[in-house]
Amino acid sequence: MAWNGSTDAPPTVRIAALAPSLQPSERRVAEAIAADVGAAVDMTAQQLAESVGVGRASVVRTAQTLGYDGYPQLRVAMARERAFETAPVADAAGAVGIVRAAMERFGRALPHVAAAMTEEHLEPFLAALDAAPRVLVAANGLSAPLGYDLALRLSSIGRPTEYVPDTLGQRILAAQMDPDSVLLAVSGSGANRASLDVVDAAVEAGARVLAITSFSRSALVERATTTLVVPPVSESFQDELLLTSRAALTLVVEALVEAMASRRGSRAQEARAAALMILSRSLGE
Length: 285
Known about the structure:
Helix content: 55-70%
Distance between the termini: 71 Å
Structural class: alpha/beta
């Protein structure tokens, strides 16, 4: 029996209504979700399956029985349910207080973000990016501005990088890549369907995939050749869905370009000098 009630009903309501009709393995998944939605929303399908001792297929079937297309859709619904359990409390200091509090939270999280960066991860990432004859950026959704910015910054230091905003265009270019080329995928969640389609096209073409993402376990990480994980400020998949902050990723992307510029030495300096010359000529009085 599958859910046929209101499409607005949250996961826990659907679970309560369908519990008696669920298969044993599905019931175990559903009960785990209902017991702690907060924990479940931060688990992948595989992690949830392992936590309750069933196969990943059981998690997918449970999601479908609850009326969702698959587990990703159930996960978003769980995040939504959690978000509306408690109404946000207004800051006594008003708008300025909210802004300052957000900045302070980000500042406190920076050491955590920096701690995730090691030479072991950065060196092969930069080496592959530097040596590739062609680099294409895959970035969509709220990561799209980061992809555009990254392509411009890399190009300005003499590391020509392509980025097209159209997702179909990204897939077409990715399908034409060769084994020496690099696809640089930027995705906070690591689960953006449009970006994964571009990655799949590049993998099929034989290209290497470098990933910049916020979570160490995701569909993007599974596909990537080399991954640079930039922990989100919140460390929560739920907040990734609701707040979708790209502050940490933006900071690391800018620092990454500086590391690349240092690696390229005089080549980067000459490229930047040429870029600055063009910029100076474009400025008005």
